[in-house]
Amino acid sequence: MLSLGTLVQPSQTEKKPAMSYYDVPEGVDIRGRYDQEFAKILTKDALQFVADLQREFRGHVKYAMECRKEAKTWYNNGALPGFDPVTKFVRESSWVCAPVPQAVADRRVEITGPVERKMIINALNSGAKVFMADFEDALSPTWENLMRGQVNLKDAVNGTISFHDKARNRVYKLNDQTAKLFVRPRGWHLPEAHIFVDGEPAIGCLVDFGLYFFHNYASFRRTQGGGYGPFFYLPKMENSREARIWNNVFERAEKLAGIERGSIRATVLIETLPAVFQMDEILYELRDHSVGLNCGRWDYIFSYVKTFQGHSDRLLPDRVLVGMGQHFMRSYSDLLIRTCHRRGVHAMGGMAAQIPIRDDPAANEAAMELVRKDKLREVKAGHDGTWAAHPGLIPAIMEVFNSNMGSNPNQIQSIKREDAARITEEDLLMRPVGVRTLEGLRLNTRVGIQYLAAWLTGTGSVPLYNLMEDAATAEISRVQIWQWLKYGVELDGDGLGVKVSRELFGRVVEEEMERIEREVGKEKLKKGMYKEACKIFSRQCTVPVLDDFLTLNAYNHIVIHHPKGPSKL
Ligand SMILES: CC(=O)SCCNC(=O)CCNC(=O)[C@H](O)C(C)(C)COP(=O)(O)OP(=O)(O)OC[C@H]1O[C@@H](n2cnc3c(N)ncnc32)[C@H](O)[C@@H]1OP(=O)(O)O
Ligand SMILES: O=CC(=O)O
Ligand SMILES: [Mg+2]
Question: What InterPro entries is this protein classified in (predicted)?
Answer without folding.
Answer: Malate_synth_C_sf, Malate_synth_sf, Malate_synthA, Malate_synthase_CS, Malate_synthase_TIM, MS_C, MS_N, MS_N_TIM-barrel_dom
